[in-house]
What does this fold into?
Amino acid sequence: MTRKYIDCREYPSEMHCTVSISADNDDELLEAAVQHAVSVHQHQDTPELRQQLRQLFKEESTSMEMPMGGRSAADMEAQRNRPT
It folds into this structure.
């Protein structure tokens, strides 16, 4: 499965945003990107914004299955901190 992403670092701004968002499908990525653009960058949620964001989507160069073997970061941290 090819994931798509959008990365604020590729579009310089005064706030120097470093957020990168990825998803398995365009609709999910678009919703997350719109929420970020509105809440962080103070854009208005308009059809034009959605069209512009969709045009900026890129495909990830490597396909990943579930990260960390399906375990959450909290699970992995708990395992590291367990006494041996």
Observations:
- The longest strand covers residues 4-7.
- The mean pLDDT is 83.
- The two ends are 38 Å apart (CA to CA).
- Residues 34 and 46 are 9 Å apart (CA to CA).
